[in-house]
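[job 0417] fold request received: Hydrogenase
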Amino acid sequence: MSAEAKPKLLWLQSITCNGNTHSFFNHYDLFSILSHFELLYHPVLETEYTLEEVIKGKVPCDVLILEGSFREEGFVKSGVEVISFVETYAKKAKFIISAGTCATFGGVFKQHDPDAITGFCFDGEEPGKRYKRYASKLISLPGCPIHPKWLSYVLMMIANKRHIPLDEMHRPQELYGITVHTGCVRNEYFEWKIDTKGFGLKEGCLFYEQGCQGPYTRGSCNKILWNDVSSKTVAGMPCFGCTEPDFPKTTLFETKTNMGIPATMPLGVPRRAYLTATGVSKSFRIKRLEERIIDYGREKTD
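[job 0417] inference complete; emitting structure tokens
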């Protein structure tokens, strides 16, 4: 690829709901971002090549975006196993981006057949059979769906030939180096153990009584807001942990506790430190916060 040439981009889908495509298409600067690439194929957009031409394996590829989970056999397009032509382009590509939790870890579709369905390089949190082969090219972007700005960040870093620091699961540290709990507007309520009493309410923490997974989930949803204005917790709904390898969990809206203490500590928090902080916070009564919960409840009732 010459210095002047745009990177050649292919977006291939396997077992998917199209959620990541639709999310990215909501980016307000979509076509400006894509203008930095030569988009050769996308299953929704009108592009230079058809799927039948792509399947033949002759299309050039610098950046490969994968959407959807994978199985070794039994998922066919135009008479060809999807995994076979995807691997053809994975070998050619300089970068492989797994867009979404399905492509990264297996996601929702893995629940249907846990032994056969995986992400492209990861099987849940464990490296899969293709990991060693493609790890040097891999950028993981889990999310259900991904935030459009997460993908635009990666694409613009590639277009500008910038290094992207990654964690052990190949997630960009800029996007996944914090938890969803970071920046949550309800953090003061979390610190003082004051929970909301329902969904859609603007006051109170969602952790203990509503099962918010924000303290366990890596992602920048409360740092890079959706549509620049909101997130699940801003809207009064608990985080479901959709960027994590174990998503979707079988029990939602519940935080398991032992004698009022979470069975699993928030990421990076030692149990002893959490118990100490909890003991201190429970010894105080924060009237100001409690009154806000009561006042908002009255407001909703009225």
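[job 0417] notes: The first helix runs from residue 19 to 25. The chain has two domains: 8-173, 178-302.
[job 0417] exit 0
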